[in-house]
Amino acid sequence: MQKSIGNKVNCAVFISGTGTNLNCIIKNAKKKFFPIKVSLVISNKSDAFGLNYAKKNNIPTKVFSSLNMKSFEKKTLEELRRKKIKFICLAGFMKILSKKFIKKFGYNIINIHPSLLPKYKGLNTHFRVLKNKEKISGCTVHYISSKLDSGKIILQKKVKVKNNDTSISLQRRILKQEHILYPEAIKTIFS
Predict the structure, then answer these.
(1) Which of 27, 35, 69, 103 has the fewest Cβ atoms within 10 angstroms?
(2) What predicted TM-score, i.e. pTM, was given to this entire model?
(3) Residue 164 belongs to what domain range?
Protein backbone atom coordinates (compact mmCIF):
# COMPACT_ATOMS: atom_id res chain seq x y z
CA MET A 1 0.00 0.00 0.00
CA GLN A 2 1.16 3.51 -0.78
CA LYS A 3 0.88 5.77 2.25
CA SER A 4 0.41 9.49 2.17
CA ILE A 5 2.65 10.77 4.95
CA GLY A 6 2.34 14.54 5.20
CA ASN A 7 2.75 15.07 1.47
CA LYS A 8 0.02 14.22 -0.98
CA VAL A 9 0.74 11.62 -3.66
CA ASN A 10 0.95 13.01 -7.20
CA CYS A 11 -1.94 11.60 -9.20
CA ALA A 12 -2.82 11.66 -12.90
CA VAL A 13 -6.44 11.26 -13.99
CA PHE A 14 -7.11 9.77 -17.45
CA ILE A 15 -10.32 10.79 -19.22
CA SER A 16 -12.03 10.45 -22.60
CA GLY A 17 -15.27 12.36 -22.04
CA THR A 18 -17.33 14.58 -19.74
CA GLY A 19 -15.03 14.26 -16.72
CA THR A 20 -17.64 14.40 -13.94
CA ASN A 21 -15.64 11.88 -11.87
CA LEU A 22 -12.49 13.91 -12.58
CA ASN A 23 -14.26 17.02 -11.25
CA CYS A 24 -15.28 15.10 -8.14
CA ILE A 25 -11.69 13.87 -7.56
CA ILE A 26 -10.34 17.44 -8.03
CA LYS A 27 -12.82 18.81 -5.43
CA ASN A 28 -11.85 16.13 -2.91
CA ALA A 29 -8.11 16.52 -3.60
CA LYS A 30 -8.37 20.15 -2.42
CA LYS A 31 -9.31 18.94 1.07
CA LYS A 32 -6.49 19.00 3.60
CA PHE A 33 -6.52 15.32 4.58
CA PHE A 34 -7.25 13.83 1.15
CA PRO A 35 -4.24 11.63 0.23
CA ILE A 36 -3.71 12.66 -3.40
CA LYS A 37 -3.07 15.77 -5.45
CA VAL A 38 -4.30 15.87 -9.07
CA SER A 39 -1.08 16.94 -10.81
CA LEU A 40 -1.95 15.97 -14.39
CA VAL A 41 -4.96 15.16 -16.57
CA ILE A 42 -4.39 13.02 -19.66
CA SER A 43 -6.96 12.55 -22.40
CA ASN A 44 -7.00 10.62 -25.64
CA LYS A 45 -9.58 13.08 -27.03
CA SER A 46 -8.81 16.76 -27.62
CA ASP A 47 -12.52 17.63 -27.35
CA ALA A 48 -13.10 15.82 -24.02
CA PHE A 49 -15.26 18.17 -21.96
CA GLY A 50 -13.46 17.07 -18.79
CA LEU A 51 -10.36 19.00 -19.88
CA ASN A 52 -12.28 22.16 -18.90
CA TYR A 53 -12.32 21.06 -15.23
CA ALA A 54 -8.55 20.71 -15.30
CA LYS A 55 -8.08 24.12 -16.92
CA LYS A 56 -10.45 25.79 -14.41
CA ASN A 57 -8.33 24.36 -11.59
CA ASN A 58 -4.95 25.15 -13.21
CA ILE A 59 -4.06 21.47 -13.58
CA PRO A 60 -1.71 20.67 -16.49
CA THR A 61 -3.30 18.63 -19.29
CA LYS A 62 -1.88 16.49 -22.07
CA VAL A 63 -3.79 15.10 -25.04
CA PHE A 64 -2.26 12.14 -26.87
CA SER A 65 -4.07 10.40 -29.71
CA SER A 66 -4.88 6.76 -28.95
CA LEU A 67 -5.19 5.70 -32.60
CA ASN A 68 -1.79 4.11 -32.03
CA MET A 69 -1.89 2.82 -28.43
CA LYS A 70 1.85 2.00 -28.41
CA SER A 71 2.65 5.63 -29.16
CA PHE A 72 0.01 6.85 -26.68
CA GLU A 73 1.48 4.69 -23.89
CA LYS A 74 5.09 5.71 -24.64
CA LYS A 75 4.28 9.47 -24.59
CA THR A 76 2.09 9.04 -21.52
CA LEU A 77 4.79 7.17 -19.54
CA GLU A 78 7.32 9.91 -20.36
CA GLU A 79 4.88 12.57 -19.12
CA LEU A 80 4.07 10.59 -15.93
CA ARG A 81 7.79 10.33 -15.12
CA ARG A 82 8.33 14.03 -15.83
CA LYS A 83 5.51 14.98 -13.43
CA LYS A 84 6.58 12.38 -10.79
CA ILE A 85 3.16 10.70 -10.88
CA LYS A 86 2.79 7.80 -8.43
CA PHE A 87 -0.94 7.00 -8.81
CA ILE A 88 -3.43 6.93 -11.69
CA CYS A 89 -7.23 7.20 -11.63
CA LEU A 90 -9.09 6.23 -14.78
CA ALA A 91 -12.30 8.25 -14.96
CA GLY A 92 -14.24 7.45 -18.09
CA PHE A 93 -11.06 6.61 -20.00
CA MET A 94 -12.29 4.48 -22.89
CA LYS A 95 -9.12 2.56 -23.74
CA ILE A 96 -7.49 -0.54 -22.28
CA LEU A 97 -3.93 -0.06 -21.02
CA SER A 98 -1.46 -2.81 -21.92
CA LYS A 99 0.19 -5.19 -19.45
CA LYS A 100 3.51 -3.58 -20.46
CA PHE A 101 2.24 -0.07 -19.58
CA ILE A 102 0.91 -1.24 -16.20
CA LYS A 103 4.24 -2.93 -15.40
CA LYS A 104 6.38 0.00 -16.57
CA PHE A 105 4.33 2.52 -14.58
CA GLY A 106 4.88 0.41 -11.47
CA TYR A 107 2.34 2.08 -9.15
CA ASN A 108 -1.38 1.62 -8.49
CA ILE A 109 -3.88 2.34 -11.26
CA ILE A 110 -7.57 2.31 -10.39
CA ASN A 111 -10.77 2.60 -12.41
CA ILE A 112 -14.46 3.15 -11.81
CA HIS A 113 -17.02 1.04 -13.65
CA PRO A 114 -20.82 1.53 -13.71
CA SER A 115 -21.85 -1.97 -12.64
CA LEU A 116 -21.36 -4.38 -9.76
CA LEU A 117 -18.35 -6.22 -11.16
CA PRO A 118 -17.70 -8.98 -12.09
CA LYS A 119 -21.14 -8.55 -13.72
CA TYR A 120 -21.50 -6.42 -16.85
CA LYS A 121 -17.91 -5.70 -17.82
CA GLY A 122 -17.36 -3.46 -20.83
CA LEU A 123 -19.78 -1.10 -22.56
CA ASN A 124 -23.59 -0.58 -22.66
CA THR A 125 -23.79 -1.62 -19.03
CA HIS A 126 -27.13 0.00 -18.13
CA PHE A 127 -28.84 -1.28 -21.26
CA ARG A 128 -27.73 -4.85 -20.46
CA VAL A 129 -28.77 -4.52 -16.78
CA LEU A 130 -32.29 -3.45 -17.84
CA LYS A 131 -32.52 -6.07 -20.59
CA ASN A 132 -31.76 -8.79 -18.03
CA LYS A 133 -34.36 -7.35 -15.62
CA GLU A 134 -31.83 -6.98 -12.78
CA LYS A 135 -33.23 -5.58 -9.53
CA ILE A 136 -29.90 -4.14 -8.37
CA SER A 137 -27.02 -2.48 -10.19
CA GLY A 138 -24.36 -0.07 -8.97
CA CYS A 139 -20.74 0.89 -9.43
CA THR A 140 -17.32 -0.53 -8.65
CA VAL A 141 -13.88 0.96 -8.06
CA HIS A 142 -11.17 -1.58 -8.84
CA TYR A 143 -7.46 -1.91 -9.52
CA ILE A 144 -6.80 -2.30 -13.19
CA SER A 145 -5.26 -5.32 -14.81
CA SER A 146 -4.63 -6.00 -18.48
CA LYS A 147 -8.02 -7.76 -18.67
CA LEU A 148 -11.03 -5.47 -19.07
CA ASP A 149 -12.75 -4.65 -15.76
CA SER A 150 -11.15 -7.65 -14.04
CA GLY A 151 -8.80 -6.20 -11.40
CA LYS A 152 -9.20 -6.62 -7.65
CA ILE A 153 -12.29 -4.81 -6.32
CA ILE A 154 -11.69 -1.96 -3.84
CA LEU A 155 -15.25 -0.75 -3.12
CA GLN A 156 -18.76 -1.14 -4.54
CA LYS A 157 -22.02 0.73 -4.10
CA LYS A 158 -25.45 -0.78 -4.88
CA VAL A 159 -28.25 1.09 -6.63
CA LYS A 160 -31.82 -0.25 -6.89
CA VAL A 161 -33.16 -0.58 -10.41
CA LYS A 162 -36.63 1.00 -10.67
CA ASN A 163 -39.43 -0.48 -12.80
CA ASN A 164 -39.62 2.65 -14.94
CA ASP A 165 -35.85 3.06 -15.37
CA THR A 166 -34.34 3.79 -18.77
CA SER A 167 -30.63 3.45 -19.51
CA ILE A 168 -30.34 7.22 -19.01
CA SER A 169 -32.22 7.45 -15.69
CA LEU A 170 -30.28 4.49 -14.29
CA GLN A 171 -27.00 5.94 -15.52
CA ARG A 172 -27.74 9.29 -13.81
CA ARG A 173 -28.50 7.66 -10.45
CA ILE A 174 -25.43 5.44 -10.63
CA LEU A 175 -23.21 8.38 -11.63
CA LYS A 176 -24.29 10.23 -8.45
CA GLN A 177 -23.09 7.22 -6.45
CA GLU A 178 -19.84 7.06 -8.44
CA HIS A 179 -19.07 10.60 -7.25
CA ILE A 180 -19.37 9.40 -3.63
CA LEU A 181 -17.64 6.05 -4.14
CA TYR A 182 -14.52 7.14 -6.06
CA PRO A 183 -13.15 9.48 -3.33
CA GLU A 184 -14.02 6.88 -0.65
CA ALA A 185 -12.06 4.24 -2.56
CA ILE A 186 -9.03 6.55 -2.89
CA LYS A 187 -9.08 7.18 0.87
CA THR A 188 -9.37 3.43 1.50
CA ILE A 189 -6.24 2.70 -0.56
CA PHE A 190 -4.12 5.19 1.34
CA SER A 191 -5.48 4.56 4.85
Answers:
(1) 103
(2) 0.94
(3) 113-147+155-191
